[in-house]
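Can you please make up a protein's amino acid sequence together with its fold in token form to help me picture the idea?
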Amino acid sequence: MDRSHHLGSLQHSIMRVLWEREEATVAEVHAALDTDQPKALTTVATMLSKLEKKGVVAHRRDGRQFVYRPLVTEMDVRRSMISGLAEQLFDGNVTELVSHLIDEQGIDSGELDALKRLIAERAERDGDDV
């Protein structure tokens, strides 16, 4: 999908529940959300409705309840949100985005080594020298 999927924190948390369960009612999503930041059942229902309008979830009726399911994958959302972030904050410059993450996120030597391996693997796959 080439659509943009910019989700707020609560919307992303709701999507995580749906990705994990594949489908869920409003009450099931509500029960599965982080209890450190409790949300009203009506708030969860409103967010699911907004997600449906964005085209990222759909519902079916099961008796009197709506059962929601994701229409996009977690990778679709990650790709879209990271791409939007890179465009918005770094004028689309991926090198600047990665540099910022390395400098500002306290990456340890093990994570840095893993990044080096990923870069080397990508370069080899693409036929480039690192």
Summary: The chain has two domains: 1-92, 93-130.
